[in-house]
Specification:
The complex is a heterotrimer of chains A (244), B (218) and C (227). Chain A is of the alpha/beta class and 244 residues long. Chain A has 9 helices and 10 strands. Chain A folds into 2 domains: 162 residues, P-loop containing nucleotide triphosphate hydrolases (Rossmann fold, 3-Layer(aba) Sandwich), CATH 3.40.50; 62 residues. In chain A, strand 7, helix 7 and strand 8 form a beta-alpha-beta unit. The model of chain A has no long low-confidence stretch (mean pLDDT 85). Chain C has 227 residues and is an all-alpha fold. Classes of the chains: A alpha/beta (244), B mainly alpha (218), C mainly alpha (227).
Chain lengths: 244, 218, 227
């Protein structure tokens, strides 16, 4: 199915749950071959934005364009080009690594499922553990497997929610290398994370969310951590000054 | 809606003021005498309970498939009215049954079907109240399924019942009673429309308040 | 269409594979159903003789209770790993996922009923072998009606509060016609001379019910599961 897109455009997206405004008129643009970092404190709206981008949630106003297409009209064909790695890893603990991957390969209707599954296991460095139940895997192993599951169908847009949580140093760096490789192949990658040190040097674009709003990030030089602190401080100062 | 509202209130008031007189002047029924007059409240309430169930079911379908928030508010109002009118039916029914047949409850097809429908919409309200976020959709499915269920409930209860033959509830209406009966139906119908409108209005205001609350945060 | 069936099949096979690894739900649900039968037997049997038609009633009540339990447990498992989300993300027809889940539940119920029917036959001297095909037809149609509505509601309740108590609250009123038809049809078959026309009538009602409610469930699955 030749359905693809080169740009992701978020236009004025808002989402509220009853009285709680989770996202407030967020706009951003992302092209192919970019890694965008979604930063912000807990409750800022990062997970909500990722859910909307993955089409699992609809915005209450505004829209998201994937190239020329929108979620509601594109439907299943769009979902074939999206990959989501949530905080819960979406793996069946009672199944083996190979069975997990094979299930998703078959569900997605991919051709040559066995080949793809073996290749994915190799990428995750789990080829020798393919026949073991996932319930016996460490967090790092599950993360690697879950990432490969999200990549099985070669998505154009990859969304990752806190992927570095619970990873040790080696796994974290392996993940960084994998993401860079995907970026070079033209994927759009959006990573929501707290881990500013690991994200340093990975991100091409930075978006900071606070209380549902997108803050403008100073493009000054300095480490990611410094720029993030500056942004948040500026926003806090603006809020303290009160409405004009 | 605003313009129709005041005339609607007046019409309903007039009808209800006149109803007791109309009912009192209706010819008394031979065997049951005064008690039979419960019928003038019982049957219109039952009719409106079923009407409301259909209104709720259809509004829920519109809400589910067209994502119309207004339809959801209508569904909520109609759902509450099913429970309200159903309560009237289920209280007046046994009161009448006690006097007419000597027992409080009869596993009669209609009464049992009404009880079941009432419970379905009671569950509808329970889900909306206790289901947490996103429960409006689940309740909507419940209402839709409940509405679709009405013929099945009636048929199955009817045929289940015939294995335990009991006296029938069906009454033939003497001509003098017909006028009184339809008057009461009209009165209850006016009351129903009034309550539905009022309740939906309340929900509309509530939704407006939520919008304002959100806008005020900007 | 082929894709639809393929997705449903894949989902069902996955559910059965997962269940076969631990067999937790199968064992506990079957045991629960058997306990139900015993509890009702003690409640309804007097001086060693069951009340008339008690066998049919006890059978269907146990199916309803065990079914509700099985539904709750199956979807609780999905909730625990959030895998329902992953299923919704797939580029497949959403109703196909519903059908896959439904088939899995039907398989579970079939196992439960395979234990319950002989139990009822033994404990209540019910003539389960008198008209076996009609009995199987009634059980199949009734279970399908019950499970079709149950799968939909249980899937939707995964993200709701108070989900344990809400499933029976929602499911039982809607499936009362199924229970009535099942009990009366089965009771007709268990009589001294099995009443086939009666059983046929109730089976026909169940067919109508199934057609209407499976269709409704297929229609409403996607709008219910997406926000």
């Amino acid at each position: 199915m030749a359905f693809d897109f080169e740009r992701l455009v978020v236009e004025d997206v808002s989402r509220h749950f009853g009285r709680r405004r989770a996202l407030n008129r967020v706009s951003l643009t992302c092209g192919a071959g970019t890694i965008l970092g979604l930063l912000g404190p807990n409750g800022a709206g990062k997970s909500t934005l990722l859910a909307i981008l993955s089409t699992l949630l609809a915005p209450t106003s505004g829209r998201v364009r994937y190239g020329e297409h929108e979620a509601r009209t594109a439907g299943a064909r769009l979902r074939a080009r999206l990959g989501l790695l949530g905080h819960d890893l979406y793996l069946y603990p009672e199944l083996t690594a190979r069975e997990n991957l094979t299930f998703f390969a078959r569900l997605y209707g991919l051709d040559r499922p066995h080949e793809r599954v073996e290749r994915a296991l190799a990428h995750a460095s789990l080829s020798d553990r393919g026949a073991d139940q996932v319930s016996g895997f460490s967090r790092g192993m599950r993360q690697r497997l879950a990432l490969e599951r999200a990549l099985l169908h070669g998505p154009r847009l990859l969304l990752l929610d806190e992927p570095f949580t619970g990873l040790d140093d080696a796994s974290g760096h392996a993940l960084l290398a994998r993401l860079r490789g995907l970026r070079d192949e033209g994927a759009i990658i959006i990573v929501a994370t707290h881990d500013l040190d690991l994200a340093e040097g990975l991100l091409d674009q930075v978006a900071v969310l606070r209380e549902g709003r997108l803050l403008s990030v100073p493009s000054s030089s300095g480490s990611l951590r410094e720029r993030y602190r500056e942004t948040v401080a500026a926003a806090q100062a603006a809020q303290d000054r009160g409405p004009r | 809606m605003a313009r129709v509202f005041l005339p609607l209130v007046l019409v309903a008031m007039v009808l209800f003021a006149a109803a007791p007189l109309v009912v009192a002047n209706a010819p008394p029924e031979q065997t049951m005498g005064l008690v039979q007059k419960i019928f003038y409240y019982h049957v219109p309430s039952a009719m409106l309970m079923f009407v409301s169930a259909f209104v709720c079911g259809i509004a829920s379908a519109v809400f589910l498939f067209r994502r119309s928030a207004a339809a959801d508010r209508v569904a909520l109002a109609a759902g509450e009215l099913v429970v309200l009118f159903g309560a009237i039916v289920l209280v007046t029914g046994p009161l009448w049954a006690r006097k007419a047949w000597g027992v409080w409850w009869e596993w009669d097809a209609r009464l049992t079907s009404s009880l079941l429908l009432w419970m379905i919409f009671l569950a509808y309200l329970l889900v909306r109240r206790f289901g947490g976020p996103g429960s409006e959709k689940l309740a909507g499915a419940m209402a839709l399924f409940g509405m679709a269920n009405v013929p099945f409930v009636y048929v199955s209860v009817n045929y289940w019942r015939t294995l335990h033959p009991k006296t029938s509830v069906v009454m033939t209406l003497a001509p003098g009673m017909r006028a009184a009966f339809w008057f009461c139906v009209a009165a209850f119908a006016a009351l129903y429309v009034l309550l539905l409108t009022l309740r939906k209005r309340l929900e509309d205001r509530q939704a407006e308040v939520e919008q304002l609350y959100l806008a005020a945060e900007d | 269409m082929r894709q639809f069936l393929r997705v449903a099949w894949v989902v069902m096979r996955k559910d059965l594979t997962v269940e076969m690894r631990s067999r937790e739900i199968v064992y506990t649900t079957v045991f629960f159903a058997a306990s139900c039968v015993l509890v009702f037997a003690f409640a309804l049997v007097r001086e060693g003789r069951p009340l008339e038609d008690a066998a049919a009633g006890i059978l269907w009540i146990s199916i309803a209770f065990a079914g509700t339990l099985g539904l709750g447990r199956t979807f609780e498992r999905e909730r625990h790993t959030e895998t329902l989300r992953a299923l919704m993300l797939a580029p497949s027809d959403r109703p196909a996922i519903y059908v896959g889940k439904l088939l899995g539940i039907l398989a579970l119920m079939a196992i439960v009923e395979a234990v319950l029917v002989p139990m009822i036959g033994l404990l209540f001297h019910a003539p389960v072998l008198a008209r076996p095909l009609w009995l199987v037809a009634l059980l199949g149609l009734g279970t399908l009606g019950f499970a079709s509505v149950g799968t939909l509601f249980a899937a939707m309740l995964v993200r709701a509060r108070s989900r344990d108590v809400l499933l029976p609250v929602l499911l039982y009123p809607i499936t009362i016609p199924v229970i009535i038809a099942g009990v009366r049809g089965t009771a007709a078959l268990f009589q001294a001379t099995p009443d086939e026309p009666m059983a046929r009538f109730w089976a026909a009602l169940l067919v109508f019910f199934d057609v209407v409610f499976v269709t409704l469930s297929l229609w409403t699955f996607e709008p219910l599961m997406t926000e």
